[in-house]
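Example (one chain per record):
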Amino acid sequence: MVYASDNRQEQLANWILDLVEILRAKGGRTWRLLVETVSGKTAAIALDGIGLRLRASGGNELLLTVEPLAESEPLIFRSDAETLRDAIAGRLSVDAAVTAGDIYVRGDLEDLRGIYAVTMEILADSAINPQLQRLWEEFDESWERPSSPPPCRALEQQKPPYGYLVNQVSEDVLRTDVGE
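Predicted structure:
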């Protein structure tokens, strides 16, 4: 995938830095979770093909460095703006987006659980924090939309499919008797 290196990259980087500063100013549980989860780590992310490398250091004084992403660097997060908009607006759950492949995440279990917890806290804070609401509004108004918006899916269609892994096992293996 070729990552753009235009003003959209800079705009995305600024929004991420603004998000961190809003969370720092608010403090509390969300900030503590963010610091615990990301301090000392690097992440390669992409939104609508705009790739960035995020590097967090400094513990409680969290310093976030945002740089352009090298083409060969493997991503740990990838999504698109419409999925992000739907999740922020509550039209799509994060779980359903991950299950459907609209959000791609990769990492060890501890990191994934931490990022999930931070994401849920940020979404919960968004309902009551005017600074976060302004940030989301700016993103919604400024970030390019696709030429035709995707249809809004009903909640019933967002239900994650269960049994996916077992459905991938061949019938003859499932019928194998492993008795004594």
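Caption: Residues 7-174 form one domain.
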